[in-house]
Amino acid sequence: MNNAEEIKKMVNEKYSKIAVASANKTSGCGCCSSEVDETDYSTFNDDYSKLDGYVADADLNLGCGLPSEYAGIKEGNTVVDLGSGAGNDVFVSRALVGASGKVIGIDFSEEMIAKANNNNAKLGYDNVEFRHGEIEALPVKDNMADVVISNCVMNLVPNKEKAFSEVLRVMKPGGHFCISDIVIIGELPEQLKNSAAAYAGCVSGAMQKEDYLAVIKSQGFRNVEVKTSKIIKLPDELLEEYLSTDEISEFKKGDFGIVSITVVGEK
């Protein structure tokens, strides 16, 4: 699947279904989940439950890191969360910026926006806002954000150069970003790379780690640094969907893999 609009449509449909199905407590990582999939993909996820501001109804287990942990969010900051989903990272960030700050969540799934707004209505925060839009064309003014965060979403955007240029545009001079994402080290089997389902599962949609970092630096960010790096062990149930028994054995022995990273950078 190479057409950017087809990719966006497929990802949007998948995450919209997850938002709708979440009422039934459908679980699974956004990197691999589907509305009917009962496979346990918890190896992708980090535990949010003990963080200030945590809202269980906003946690759909769609992340691959804890971007707020390294984001340096301060009281009074304006934070923009890209691919905000049901609001998990937004509400955690709101606890850090306090009543004097502001947090804006951006998502291109209208169903996710609706769920996030419903969660916020229960909380009554007047300094939290959710906007419908694409990361490649953010509905945010220039030089607005002190901090931009994102959790396992940028890998799903077809034009990553444009996405990171938008991050730079909306950040204030001296602002910074903290993004958790999935990258690849080495070469994955073609079956995984070319599968549309795996693309929505941030497997074939992910870039090589060095290429990913190069895209960030090419947009003019300074002091780009990987703060955390974790090898993701894909469950056999997932691999069996795309690979033969022999291919799975070779995959596990190979010098390559899927890695969750949290990366920071400054404007």
Structural overview:
This protein is α/β, with parallel strands linked by helices. It has one domain: Rossmann fold, CATH 3.40.50. It is built from 9 helices and 7 strands; from the N terminus they run αβαβαββαβαααβααβ. A 7-stranded mixed beta sheet has the order 3-2-1-4-5-7-6, with helices on both faces. Helix 1 (4-21) runs parallel beside helix 3. The radius of gyration is 17 Å and the shape is globular. The model is unreliable at 26-43 (pLDDT under 50).
The computed structural class is: alpha/beta
Looking at the structure, what is the overall shape? globular
- DSSP strand tally: 7
Number of helices: 9
* Main sheet: strands, sense, barrel: 7 strands, mixed
Q: Distance between the terminal alpha carbons, to the nearest Å? A: 33 Å
CATH superfamily: Vaccinia Virus protein VP39
Rg value: 17 Å
Low-confidence stretches: 26-43
Average predicted confidence as pLDDT: 84
Strand content: 15-25%
CATH topology: the name is Rossmann fold
CATH architecture level-2 label = 3-Layer(aba) Sandwich
Main-sheet strand order equals 3-2-1-4-5-7-6
| CATH hierarchy, class | Alpha Beta
Give the SSE order as H and E letters.
Answer: HEHEHEEHEHHHEHHE
Query: Domains counted in the coordinates: how many?
Result: 1
Helix content: 25-40%
